Amino acid sequence: xxxxxxxxxxxxxxxxxxxxxxxxxxxxxxxxxxxxxxxxxxxxxxxxxxxxxxxxxxxxxxxxxxxxxxxxxxxxxxxxxxxxxxxxxxxxxxxxxxxxxxxxxxxxxxxxxxxxxxxxxxxxxxxxxxxxxxxxxxxxxxxxxxxxxxxxxxxxxxxxxxxxxxxxxxxxxxxxxxxxxxxxxxxxxxxxxxxxxxxxxxxxxxxxxxxxxxxxxxxxxxxxxxxxxxxxxxxxxxxxxxxxxxxxxxxxxxxxxxxxxxxxxxxxxxxxxxxxxxxxxxxxxxxxxx
Length: 290
Ligand code: HPA
Fold this sequence. Notes:
The protein has 290 residues and is of the alpha/beta class. Helices cover 30% and strands 24% of the residues. The chain has a single domain, classed as Nucleoside phosphorylase domain (Rossmann fold). A hairpin with a 5-residue loop joins strand 1 and strand 2 (9-10). Helix 1 (13-26) crosses helix 2 and helix 2 crosses helix 6. The chain is globular, with a radius of gyration of 18 Å. The model has no long low-confidence stretch (mean pLDDT 91). The chain binds hypoxanthine.
């Protein structure tokens, strides 16, 4: 690990390869699917069969999650017979990590053989039609920190991972989105299933009503504090991505102010309620995908 000016901590290819080798030396499973379990959605790790666990703290220089509702370990195993690795505990910009730290796990996954990344997150509903407890298939994103100069690929490009200027136009795989719609309909989720645009903000403060009006105006359906850096790094190294967002609270829009305030406990409670529905969706999706 190196420290590189305004980018903060960065990782060389060799240091990421050492992390992957360390894991490979201790874990027998060769994952092809990586799953990032967002805030309150760690239950997916319980559905993994023939588990093998690797704690983040056992990987030198690997970050450790500091947020309530996040653990700090990889769970390897099988879902529907397919080898997976789940990240229980992800990292957020607001924790003070550099963008390289936020995303190093994606590169480790790629070196371990992962080809498809599933990301989940909790978000606030900006679209006025969305309700608390709805699930949204992510069809595109607005990376606010990235637009403001905090793109995880800033700095020297490592060609062994990917190209200098990767396209992000088809970041959220079309076929997986279509399959997820089919699976969700079969499961009876149609009434609470959405598809829309995820807008990332840096946090940790929730957004002001004027900021929510802004996000709504520019086409964001939900807002959250994660996901975009991981997805950009995943696309850079050629992973196929599927993203699902759980709407845990309704954002307060300018002109619609109430006494209610967004809070983290609410986010965790709704996550716990929908946990099993999301697990069922992922299991069916994994069983049907090629
Ligand atoms: N804003 C930002 N991030 C979030 C929210 C929100 O309202 N809810 C869950 N994560």
